[in-house]
Design a protein that fits this description.
By secondary structure, the chain is an alpha/beta fold. It has a single domain (4-141), classed as P-loop containing nucleotide triphosphate hydrolases (Rossmann fold), CATH 3.40.50. It has four helices and seven strands, in the order βαβαββααβββ. It has a seven-stranded mixed β-sheet, covered by helices on one side. Strand 3 (66-69) and strand 4 form a beta hairpin. It is globular.
């Protein structure tokens, strides 16, 4: 699933791609999401959470900065760095503590701090496609 580009034609397909990725993740994995407003990053995270066995509501952490989902195969920490201004603010919310807990960290707006991530980080870039509901989803490993 990594180092592939997919075309999604609906929110359901975007969630399905997230689900398939979620089934492959293990504790300690970091998923760095990038893409514009409204492109489907949170839908992709909903899919990942479902792939990990989480059955509750998954929403955007835009105002809370991080949502924790603890009843899946691994703890899932869903971050949104949109409102944060640089690496110091990110470290200030306890990034290191979350990263050391053995769960899976997923970051929306990861481009704000790409220097924070290790070489094995899974990068997911979601862009608008040709038609209204189309999304181009590129999944790769940071090198």
């Amino acid at each position: 699933m990594v180092d592939e580009t997919y075309i999604s034609h609906s929110v359901t397909e975007t969630e399905r791609l997230g689900y398939e990725l979620g089934e492959t993740l293990t504790g300690g994995d970091v998923v760095a999401l990038s893409g514009g407003l409204g492109v489907g990053k949170t839908a992709f995270v909903r899919g990942i959470a479902a792939g990990l066995g989480f059955s509750g509501f998954v929403g955007s952490p835009t105002f809370t900065l991080v949502n924790e989902y603890l009843n899946g195969a691994f703890p899932l920490f869903h971050f949104d760095f949109y409102r944060l201004d640089g690496i110091n603010e990110i470290l200030g919310i306890g990034w290191d503590d979350y990263a050391d807990r053995g769960g899976i960290c997923i970051i929306e707006w990861s481009e704000r701090c790409i220097e924070l991530f290790a070489d094995d980080t899974i990068c997911v870039d979601i862009r608008f496609g040709e038609f209204r509901d189309d999304r181009i989803v590129r999944i790769s490993r940071r090198r």
